[in-house]
From TrEMBL:
Source organism of this protein record: Microbacterium hydrocarbonoxydans
Protein's name according to its UniProt entry: Htaa protein
Keyword Membrane (UniProt): yes
Transmembrane regions: 1081-1102
Pfam entry (one): HtaA
InterPro entries for this protein: Htaa
Keywords, comma-separated and alphabetical: Membrane, Signal, Transmembrane, Transmembrane helix
Amino acid sequence: MNATASAPTESRRIRVLLAAFLSFLLIAAGAVIVPPAHAADGSVTASVTSAGSAGLTVQVEATGLPGVPSVYAALIVKGTEGGLSGPGGGYAAFAQPFPTVSAGATSFTLTAPAGSLDRAQVYEVLIWQQHSIPNAETIYARGDVAVSAAQWDSVLGAAPTDPGTDPGTDPGTDPGTDPGTDPGTDPGTKQPTEPSIAVFLADGSTPVGTTPLKAGDKVVVKGSGYDPTANVGGRGVPIPANLPQGTYVVFGNFAATWQPSSGAASSTRSIGAQAWALSETVLNQVPAQYQAAIRGQWVDIAADGTFRATLTLKDAAATPGSYGIYTYGAGGVTNAAQEKSVPLAYGPTPTLTATVTAATAADGLTVTAAGSKLGSVTGAYVALIEKGTEADVTAGGGFLAMQYVRGITGGAFSVDLTAPADTLDRTKTYEVIAWQQHTMPNAGTIYARSTVAISDAQWNALLPAPAPAVTTTVKSATAAEGLTVAAAGTDLGAVTGAYVALIEKGTEADVTAGGGFLAMQYVRGITGGAFSVDLTAPADTLDRTKTYEVIAWQQHTMPNAGTIYARSTVAVTPAQWDAITGKKPETPKPPTKPTTPAKPAATVPGGLLRWGISTSFTEYVVGDIAKGAIDVSGGATRSGGRFQFGQTVGGDYDRASGLGSVVYRGAVRFTGHGGVLDVTVSNPQIRITSAQSATLSVTHAGATVPFATLDLSKATVVKSNGAVTYAAAPASLTAAGRDTVLSGFSTNLDPVSFTIGSVAAAPSGTTGTVAAAVVKVKREIPSTPPATDGIEIAEGELAALQAGRSATFTASGFEPNETGIRVVVYSTPVLLDTVTADAAGVATWTGTLPAGLEDGAHTLTLQGSVDRGLAFTLTRQTAALGACTVEGATLEWGYKESFRTYIEGIAAGGWTLTDVTYDYPDYVWTGGAGSFDDETRTGLVTFGGSIRFTGHGGALDTTLVNARLELAGDTGYIVFDVLGTTQDGQSVDQKGVRLAEFDLADAVVVDGSLSLDEVPTSLTEAGAAAFGTYAAGEELDPLTAVLPVDSECGVTAPADVPDESEGTAAAASVTAATVPDGAPIWPWIVGGLLIVALGVGGGVLIGRRTARGARGDESSELATEV
């Protein structure tokens, strides 16, 4: 009978020893017979097994392949492997699922749709290494496919014959071919007509012929004979390869030999505008995530093979040949019948550049205008105008400078235009236009236009800033108090302090720190370049026969020609002199009755603009990603998180109508990403166009750019003493602001508050660098272990560690509660985690070593204020007895949605995928393979592939390579090799980084799969160190994965023990097993005998993980025969 009993200790030990020895022998045998990585003599036998209107089916038998689990295989036009892209396209048929290889051989079928075949070509079957491009290093085998003429006829129909050689083909000689004599023939079933296209002007009815065309013109293309069911095959994306791919309808510049069917490279076809002709029935079958990309250029091919496409013409990027309309197979399909073209008389778009070549106050502004691509034009008018005012140009005015350019050859010219300085306005933008001679400039006659970029330095040279000045006024004059002079300085620019003194005129050389003046003041805190101060000289220091002046000069210097800012003579009247010297005044005449003076006009408050610009953009600039700074200059200040600009001269605001413009002064500069990000917002101007709206413009690269629109209807409006204030007006970024000023960055703007008043300096606040990112110095991990001892670990924990299982160890000597202690394993340093010491300075770590860490000598370290180490030898089992094999696994993970948004937004970048697809919102890997031990819930599944993230013009360039799922008990990891340059500009090249972690506590094998559905993931310490920017613990996108395992995974094996005859049969079976030529068979014979010995000695139980936990019985039990 059968019973359950505890195994004797001796028996258990014997079996353990025997099992270990058996494992060693089998491993040794595997090592001896392991196949080569590449088979140089692989062979392919391919034969056509079926041929019909649906396509061609080829049976493939291949031998001599290397010892790999599976391969890529495809049916291709012979010798065209250079155009393949793995499973991505370039073939007539691709083998899916990937053919599996056993003992160096494989067998599979390939089915090529009729639309992907060409009877004029010779085909072959190609077999090559997975996750690679086929070349001499990766191709395992290849073999020709012989297709008979009859088979071609079955697939593509009978080849056409020459009617002239067969009188029987003349309908006149065979009345049976006359449809009128045979009611059984239906004229409606005849083959569609040959594809053809006709091109018309925008009205759709006037043939285009030789009509001259230019950029912006529209043409209508009408096609007929385009079979909506043709062109099956192709790349498979965005249209599945089993569907018709449609036809490209293109305006462009194509070489003389451009046809894909002739093997012409894509460089021979330069596209200006394109439509995608495709049956709507097919379009509706395209996966939803790809339909939008097609619908943006889609036109329908009707059932009768006709289509109509309207194209807006524009220059092609290159000009390898001639402009025209072209059609050819879409989606990588080759169809010579649809390769049609119609030439067009298209002229490239004329271009015009405007460059400032001189700028002085005396000679004015000289702009060199250079035109090109003017075709046959021999003469043109060229003028410098205020931007957008071409409607004001007449024969006698409306321009600042104009030239009639004659004798143009080759479509190009260059001419100088000079405008006097006094005709220019710094607040305006100017442009150069070139237009048709003997006409007025308008949309129909202007060839090209170009904005003139005038730098701040050039404007300063054209319209020099007013020189510093001092005005003086005698404020009081008495014998007792002396002479008091009010001195007011203006236009001092950025000067914040100056010395001001009353001296005898022309005696500045006598001024010292202790004398040489009648009165002196040190004026501090000058803002807006202006000050006012009183100077008082005692009466007895003055001489009526002398002249006096006030000078203002540079602080901490002596006054001279190089340091004096300005000077002003003091005008003292005779009456004032009489008062100072004490001369008795004449008896006054009786006063006349005074008249009531007019009430003085109220002082208008100073104008001011307060604006945070964009809080989110500001935080981004000084955050961990951009690591930048914000600088304020030019008279602007910052206070309370808002930038402040004082009102300056200029503008045409009308207080009566409430309309017009006002100009403010100052600049704010945002820098980041090591200089890649550099944005300056300066000299904001607000133009009120109605009671509800206004436009805020800024100066960028010398030009005025409309940066934001303001909603004045939502602002609070207050009028007081001649000034008007708009508070908290909502602001929206314009397209020009986004593209020109912010270099394509999009952001939300803060509300704007501004006062239109009198010229004034900005309120007090901080200037210079007002905010900057905190630079965190990144600690580098040493390339060699900084310590090899000091880690304390129990004997059992050490054994677990060396076997690759979870282990715990401690180390002391760290600072109390020290944080950021790094756990690093060597030989090649890999950061595993960071830990925190306790109050006694003891650090503890529990975890597993990476599954990819190779067996051998290694060192574990704790690195902090002190370093501790542990040398050990990893002897992980190469394969657990009964471990589950994983094949065909899938992984879906988007990394982090906000990061993808950042890449495509602010970073102006994207990603490049290799052997990975993107199915919003996830990156998708397929074909993962590896192993999984369901008893310990450990394993490693490798997917391969790579994702390369780029942005900020190349400053960010990070690649995640070779995706893996590592399962380690209750925790799982997403593992990558990480290389490139991270978001924060750091170089990285780390292998086997556990980038993200997730919980595995509830994961079980069900119905032959370990499935993970929307499992939350978070960034690990190692991931944070390698990828940069985000902190460890940052929430990442959820993970979904399916790991198929063999059907017996997780199922307890039967407890029945084979009898002696079964054991003998098993041994015989092992002995008879087929092994490769030249491989020794003795390990298998000995292994078989050991199996028999184990069976005879008391029974064998080879099983999978049992349900012991469910029964609550954790004792070690064996099913034995009694």
